[in-house]
Design goal:
Elements lengths: L2 H16 L4 E5 L10 E4 L32 E5 L1 H12 L8 E5 L24 H4 L11 E2 L17 H7 L10 H7 L3 H14 L5 H5 L24 H14 L9 H5 L6 H16 L27
Parallel strand pairs: 1-3, 3-4, 4-5
Antiparallel strand pairs: 1-2
Keywords: Iron, Iron-sulfur, Metal-binding
Pfam families: Fer4_8 (PF13183)
InterPro entries: 4Fe4S_Fe-S-bd, 4Fe4S_Fe_S_CS, Helical_ferredxn
Length: 314
């Protein structure tokens, strides 16, 4: 058992036994060595189910939406990218601050299980693309910290992920290129762009995995599941899929925390983050640099109006 797992289990037992929280959301070891899926526990003895390793990739913050109507206090573990989802939910008034206990864990980057060649034999695996682009390996918000996890912005020497450790692991090595795919698509001709996105939208079969895992997709009723006629077409045609993709990107505009979970869980490998990052790039150019989910008291670029805002559409 690794040190982080031990500390997670000890803290979970303490929190549940004392009644400080009614439930706790974390990760557990799956049926294969490369699977560490989410788990919800409510009893101290269930703490033994918790586990953390390089496959604890799931962003757990969206699971808090299942508790948004209750008054029970729920604890959950967050990595750096996950913690931005907590800020997002708080700013969207989807959860109450007093009803969630945020526990930060240090993240050394998550391994790409798609690179597994032998399901029986553990091997050294490359990092996920989203970890190579990561700019927040340490939590931006936390009530408790596991194994020296550092809250971003603290002036003290990092105890979690140091710059040298990040460089060795490769975390954040491509963060400067996070708009590279956007610029590549922008450089295409109109016909090339159409062909590129047409091919992507032909693959989509509208499983909604991207929407379901996204902490910014927190509408109480999704327009794409509405039974009101004339709103949207639910068929999985390229045209309707394109409408879904663009609509979802605009719904999370200025609120996407770039956790990359939408693209990671897509069974058809659609480059969803390319569209999200195009919107982020445009917002940055129009309204100034902004990182969603990093400042609880910060103003969202599309959440306020200033007299000097550009009005190029006029």
């Amino acid at each position: 058992m690794n040190q982080i797992t031990k500390e997670m289990r000890d803290l979970a037992r303490e929190l549940l036994a004392s009644g400080e929280v009614k439930g706790l959301i974390g990760w557990t070891k799956g049926s294969r060595w490369y699977l560490t899926p989410p788990v919800v526990i409510t009893q101290p003895e269930e703490a033994e189910q918790l586990y953390f390793d390089q496959f604890a990739v799931n962003n757990l913050t969206g699971l808090l939406l299942d508790y948004r109507y209750g008054d029970d206090k729920i604890a959950l573990f967050v990595k750096g990218c996950d913690s931005r989802g907590i800020v997002r939910l708080l700013q969207d008034h989807q959860i109450k601050r007093d009803n969630v206990l945020v526990i930060g864990v240090p993240c050394m980057g998550m391994s790409d299980k798609k690179a597994v060649t032998d399901p029986r034999q553990p091997a050294e695996l490359p990092l996920l693309d989203k970890c190579l682009e990561c700019r927040y390996p340490n939590p931006v918000i936390a009530d408790r910290l596991i194994s020296g996890a550092l809250v971003s912005g603290e002036p003290s020497e990092p105890k979690g992920l140091t710059a040298s450790e990040a460089a060795k692991r490769g975390v954040g090595s491509k963060q400067a290129d996070r708009f590279a795919q956007v610029k590549a698509i922008e450089a295409m001709s109109a016909d090339e762009k159409y062909a590129f996105w047409q091919a992507q939208h032909e693959k989509c079969f509208r499983c909604y995995a991207c929407r379901n895992i996204c902490p910014a997709c927190n509408c109480r009723e999704c327009i794409f599941e509405s039974d009101k006629k004339g709103w949207v077409n639910k068929s999985a045609t390229p045209t309707d899929n394109a409408f879904f993709a663009v609509t979802r990107a605009m719904h999370v505009a200025g609120r996407c925390v770039e956790c990359g979970e939408c693209e990671r869980v897509c069974p058809m490998d659609i480059p969803i983050m390319a569209l999200n990052r195009k919107v982020i790039q445009d917002i940055n150019e129009l309204f100034g640099e902004s990182d969603a989910g990093t400042d609880l008291d910060g103003k969202m670029p599309l959440g306020l109006f200033k007299n000097d805002d550009p009005e190029e559409f006029m």
